[in-house]
Amino acid sequence: MLNNITRDLADHDLRGQVADYIPQLAQVSPQHFGISVATPEGALYSAGDVSQPFSIQSISKVFALTLALGKRGDGIWEYVGREPSGDPFNSIVQLEHESGKPRNPFINAGALAVVDAIMMGHEPKEVLAEILSFIRFLSDDASIYFDHEVAASELEHKHRNASLAHFMKSFGKLQHDVDKILGTYSHQCALAMNCEQLARAGLFLVSDGINQVSGSRVVSAQRARRINSLMMMCGHYDGSGEFAYRVGLPGKSGVGGGILAIAPGKGSIAVWSPGLDTVGNSLLGTKALEMFTQNTGWSVF
Ligand code: DON
Question: Which sequence positions are flagged as catalytic?
Fold first, then answer.
């Protein structure tokens, strides 16, 4: 079935626009397409460009939130809310009326607050080492790396995120140095992974917090359900309602064109197609997931 989806989408002319506000991402061909499905039984089904690493960007916010919950527990909700924003991923408007507290951990402002919560007085290098070893543990793959060129490219054009961070800092909402938070955040977003690695990294959210393949408990069952609920409500920003309507799964997108979707009890699905729709989510990636859930009945509804 994955081969059929890949073949059907190969001829699609309408692939959306590759993100160009991070110049390094603009160099990626929109022709790529890959899809991988990992199951708790240890099967991995793949079609298309599934071995080529891509920039996971905002998908990393799921893993950063998981780490932050481990360190801070429910204290994280003092830093960031858990409501959908209905605004673009890099919007500043709500911060002014809501005392600098971001609506949720997946918009950029919220992800910056999560990084601040993870840092706990440590230097960016140490925090990044922890993020990297966590993601390697989740996907059981030590070859995952930070693409430093992508991080540098984002940092050169960091004005919007820097504005968000300084604005939050002005409300006393960030504890650490803004440049250190931005540097850490940009590297976290510049994690390079392929579809197979990403599908495996999502397995703990499929099985109540346990990665059944490695046998490791990552989070409690309750926490896994809550992370999934946040992905469902906020994982696609102002496109979250549309994604829930069409795909019916918790999902998280990134401007590198990846999407991680979780079918609780069934499997973890990673897709990659770099062209984005108007709100910054992978256009063909969403289409592929819509076809996939229609064929498998794997929607949560
Ligand atoms: O901060 C940014 O703008 C990027 N590093 C991440 C944004 C992103 O992936 C939004 N997702 N669709």
Answer: 58, 61, 185, 237, 255
